[in-house]
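hey all, quick one before standup. I had two proteins in the batch that finished overnight and I want to keep them in one place so we stop losing track of which output belongs to which input. First protein below, input sequence then structure tokens straight from the run.
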Amino acid sequence: MTDLTGPSWDLSQEYESPTDPQIQADLDELTSMLDRIEDRNKGLTVVLDHIDDMSATEKSAAINSACDLHNLIEDAAKLLRNPSTFANCLLSVDGDDEQAKILEGSLIQYRLRFNELAQPSNQFLNIAPDDVIDEYLQDERVIDAEFQVRHSRLRRHELLSLQEENLVSALGQNGIHAWSRLYDRLAGQLKCQVADGNDQREVGIAEAASLMQSTDDRTREDAWRAINAAWSSHEETCAAAINSLAGWRLEMCKRRSNGKPVHFLDAPAHSSHIGRETLDSVIGVAKESKDLSQRAAKALARAYRKTKIGPWDQRAPAPELPGQDATIPFDEGLGIVADAYGQVDGSMGDFVHMMAENRWIEGTVGPSKRPGAYCTSFAKSNTPRVYMTYSGSMTDVTILAHELGHAFHHWAMRDLPDSQKSYGMSLAETASTFGETLVRDSLLSRSESPQMSLAVAWEELSAIAAFLLNIPTRFEFERNFHEARAEKPLLPRELRSLMTEAWQEWYGDSLSEPDDLFWINKLHFYISGTSFYNFPYLFGYLFSQSVYQRRESMGDDFFVRYKGLLRDTGRISAEELATRHLDADISQRDFWRATVAALEPRVAHFESLCDEIFD
């Protein structure tokens, strides 16, 4: 019998358990490296206070120290990330894993020391005069890091002193990052009561969230209300957490506004490798396009014989239609993704099968699993892992295609230097949303009836509503929240109000009621390492659509050019990437307008299917 749910992943290729002696061996090696970094830092700290007036001898010695430190820091980062990734993977599957919690907690002291010891190199590379950096980047030990260094220097006016940066890093582990860990613990342990016939049963948040992929309206709504009821009992705690996260970031903006004012959107835009002008353009075009996006949402509602969608419909699958099997076993779903990927190039289909054969995909349903889906990678083996909860819906197939897109992006870059693998969130969504579109169009081309076509096209319309309405709603809330938080911490009722206003601003009359607790139940608002974990999805969706729309015109060269684009994501800005590979200027609204305009036929096609099936 074929299993409906997904397989459990195999992490033993990295470590057998949280108490595996190899973890301690890696941490001992990490300690040795950190000792060497500390010793080598002396060659930089002696010149930081007069870096503009170094003698020729001091400059030569400092550059040599900085080159040595570059490789040491990269190697140490791998040894730190590996057990961190392992602990996070374990806790994602089982939030009650005590040994994984102990491991996660024990890594804090290593992370603190690593961050502190990396600061002198960071300071030197950011504040040194241009001629010093030019000479530094000519050294073969660091030449691959040119973009990383020059991109970082765009924000050098924000740097505090070495002592202050070390203090910020140290306090952050038990400050901003502690609030994020608290939320993760709650998400992994929280239980809610969902309907089970005439009775109630207790499930974890992730399992309840999977019920919102049911074709039954009442099941989805009940699960949504159950999740919100569970989170509402922690409303004060979550309000304290989200206020503290934003408060920390806003305070840091003030402290870093020495050279010129620092806005709370500067850091997320910079980390996404895009300029503020580009960010403003993509959000602006999304706002211009609300009529089309709301048409998509209303069409989705119509397929369920409703006039408006509910907040519990955000992950709804296509409605069940006569003669269709509503569930897709995991192996079948994997085959769908592999076939679609293989249509671009055989190596992409082979990659999907390799991920499954190596057991690098986690898709089980469990009571203590964290909600959501992600792709991560182990630094030592340089191999990706995909995490999700697969329960057999078409939406699950789309999520699988999305996360495997991330994994393929990693795989395409695996032979590059570490300094060229950090591509920012906006570009991170390129391969993932491209993968979704591949799967949808592949299925549409094989559809044998309007009902089957609607089931596939549903995923396309859901993507348009998600990326052009739901994502901007999150952005609107987070931006308005940060602006309000600059004045004072917000009460839970005020957070509810801001959230409601954002839903109404973007969805208009296409939504039956707002989700005023979305600020609690959306994990992305509580990620301490990244703020505004939202607009990159909109950027990535539209950018990948633009890439996809060029597939036919590029012909046989497409795969080579596509893979080349992915490999360049970590070594040039998004603007330069678009110029080089798409001959386009993404800082201007016309690029995004053209991309959105090409989506209108997809909306119209879905509406015509509704006309054919339901009227």
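OK second protein, same deal, sequence then tokens:
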Amino acid sequence: MNYDVIVIGGGHAGVEASLSCARMGAKTLLITILVEQIGASSCNPAIGGLAKGHLVKEIDALGGEMGLCTDATGIQFRILNASKGPAVRGSRAQIDMDRYRIYMRDVILKTPNLDVKQEMVESLIVEDGEVKGIFTQLGSRYDASKVIITAGTFLNGVIHIGETQLSAGRQGEFASIGLSKSWRELGFDIGRLKTGTCARVDGTTIDFTQMEEQGGDEKPIPFSFRTPKERFNPKQLPCMVAYTNGSTHHIIESNFYRAPLFSGQIDGVGPRYCPSIEDKINRFRDRERHQIFVEPQTIEANEFYLNGMSTSLPTDVQLEMIHSMSGMENAKIVRYGYAIEYDYIQPTELRHTLETKKIKNLYCAGQVNGTTGYEEAAAQGLIAGINAVLSLREQEPFILGRDEAYIGVLIDDLVTKGTKEPYRMFTSRAEYRLLLREDNADVRLSHYGKLLGLIDDEFYAKVALKKAQISEVTLWLKENFVTPTKEFIALLESIDEEKLNDKTAWIDLLSRSTITQEKLLTLLPEFKKYSDEVLEQILIESKYSRYIEKQYTQVSKMKDMLKVKIPQGFDFRKVSGLSNEIVEKLEKFTPPTLFNASEISGVTPASLEILHVYIKMAQRGKI
């Protein structure tokens, strides 16, 4: 059978990739090992978090499905870092893992242009350096113009539970051996990574009275900009907080020799920022206890996930260490925790479109690119799908800049720097994070979703109006001033605000940390005509206006810098601060401009700035 695009794998990356392709009009095949596991959450029952919430909001603004599914299946919604600045806040939701998976499967099966097949891909069909389709283990051949690999942890996956090793991509599911072999035979730079999950416990055997309760927000905010806030009223369940103790740590330390992580059984590198419990105990021996979040996996709350207790220790040790914690003395394990090793492609093998450099029309997205997390995977799947279809149409690729989106930062980091450990998104990775907030993702990116055909006219009209109103009001606040008359000082005092001494721009007055939406409307009652969303943006823009202007200036300088030409015969070895690897690549490719240099894998923004300084010095005859 012939398709425009084949997507291999039905996880978070595969879902967004296949939906974006089909919705953009491409005849698409999603091929997956188990159809009922489409959209499955292999590890924790949650979506979002710090920086990860940004990715989900951006996926939503571009027309992806993750935010809508989270709103439909969420069982607790919280804003993390709510007391901090808006740039570092993160939305997080506990999800009903069963309903999330069923929702995504149903959306996939109901989407026009999208076929689903339950088969395992055995090999890629490649001719003259170009992918032509796939063969499956059932002997089926499917031809396609584009192929997107989103196989997650299934490529040559090996599960570790103590000394036991199982060939699997997820507990109870086959590993994909043939596709991994096909990858290697094509000459890709393939490595091994490791991740893991924790035990799941029967909720009826937990004594929650011995734990701390952590509820959701009183007024939950939906993930999707397309979910009506006025109709968003999810049933929320509490999470509980338990703690390890000295006895727990002793049990784990006494069994280090049985831990695959320490015995040499595992070769793959694990996620530094989400270590297993045995790794935590080993690295932080001075800690008296570690926090464990006891999270419900479904609305029925009959099975709980022990967030913070990922492990690959033997089953008897898992039970003993869990029983050592207060409230868990009688806990029954339903599913044991495990570590999993899997193959990944070094992402420097990819272009910013996520197409491989070696094989034309072959794309990779998700954990196969060395990332960890549902959100990072979904973001890559969406971008790979979009670019596959644009390439079919012979249109310009869709590449988000680091100044436009966290998705742009994610992909740029991967394809230029590569990774030797599972890559996780953090707000600190984004240089322009004041511009790239969760709250303005719709304003930043929805016009792209509209152009791509992934956002409908009705929603985009609302975003366009919101964007115009924010710009109009922000400009008015900058250009209009208030004077400290007796009447105005009295008005300020009535709302417990410090008086003004001089003529002041409205935007500077509203930049005070004490100014709330209620106070804003007291000072400027004519603004009552604007929605709460617009007023929220106005306050944020006012409070951070000076810093936002600085970031816009930095963005402008960076864009100007990338236009700078590199002189012919420029001696890169004279540039102090560049690694030997970067120098060798620059000498090999001899890029004509700094922008072309930025497209070379391994050439970082910092190295571009150094190179820019030396080019200017050379032009002045100083080197």
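Flagging for whoever picks this up: The two ends are 61 Å apart (CA to CA). The chain has a mean pLDDT of 94.
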